[in-house]
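Cross-posting from the modeling subforum.

Setting up a comparison between two proteins and wanted a second pair of eyes on the formatting. Protein 1 (sequence, then structure tokens):
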Amino acid sequence: MMVDDYSKAFADIVKVVFPQARAQADGTWIEEWELKTAGPVKLVSADDLARLGRAMSQADFQVEAVQRSEDLFVLKVVMFADAKQGRFLWNSYGMLQIFDEHLAPIAFVQGQPRKSWVCLRNRPSQG
């Protein structure tokens, strides 16, 4: 039966949970991404977090990285256009890859394991 064929084909699809984009009075949109690292990360200086944020940012996609604990980070993203257009998907994926490569291996994004996120799935995890 054709339904069974589709069911098998889509059995491995994982629906990821993106953070809710919130419209601001000034016309920007804000998302907060919660990342849990594969292990503890020593306290990162404000200067290092600022440099990381700049590396993850684009002209209309500004990122601020905040360390909440040894293994918990929040990436606050300010977008200068409607976030619901999906136009920032590649920016978001690039941001996750930069964090993963340059600061610490990501274990969870938005509470979901790294393997659920296509942008991290085939990247080696040093954790």
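Protein 2 (same layout):
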Amino acid sequence: MSDPRKALAAVDALGNLLRREIAAVEGGAFNQLVEFASEKARLTAVLEEQLSQDPEAVSKDKLRDLKDLIARDHHHLQLARQATSEMISQVSQIREKHSIAGIYGRSGAKRDNRATLMTTVDKSF
């Protein structure tokens, strides 16, 4: 039989961890996210086990609050992933444009390696 206190403790611990993770993302402390991942998985497994034994161990309001935190955390992590992906793409483009390996393409033709694009002047009146 499940102990409702364990389920409530798991909900509270997971909620606190999600709040810390959200604060870490908002503060740019991405190195902490790795530390949070294993603890988040462990607490989730504990909570799932407790709720499978006694689905009424935690009130619907507490679960709704936890769901909101999970959604907020997910949104923050998605934004961080997107920003990281964009930065990697930009750095890769800059490296290719300014590297010695970027002068000639795979076909052997010289690449256009100008750091900035030439602007054209509109000469029409």
